[in-house]
Amino acid sequence: MMDNTDAPVSAVEIAKFMGRNKFTILRWAEAGLIPCTRLNARVILFTPSLVKAAVSAQSLGRWNEPKKTS
Q1: Which of 33, 49, 36 is nearest to 10 (CA)?
Q2: Residue ranges of the domains in the chain?
Q3: Which long-range contacts link 19-22 to residues 24+ away (Cβ below 8 Å)?
Q4: DSSP E strands: which ranges in 1-70?
Q5: CA 35/CA 28 separation, integer angstroms
Q6: pLDDT tens digits, residue range 14-53?
Q7: What pTM was computed for the model?
Q8: Which residues are bridge partners to 54 per DSSP?
Q9: Which of 28, 52, 67, 69 is the most exposed place for a label (fewest CB within 10 A)?
């Protein structure tokens, strides 16, 4: 799934990759904080390497530390 960091993936896949909720990813995309490609009103794709660079540059989250779960 995440073998090729240049292959576009869904918000769900990016969320799993980052250890975040898909709604957080969609909110960041809507705010223009992370790059995305909107194919239509329902399909938004993300390039993992570009998202990782944007998150690291903007300090949106702890990239290397997974979110704590109880």
Answers
A1: 36
A2: 1-44
A3: 19/65, 19/66, 19/67, 20/61, 20/67
A4: 37-38, 44-45
A5: 9
A6: 999 889 999 999 999 999 999 999 999 899 999 999 998 8
A7: 0.74
A8: none
A9: 69
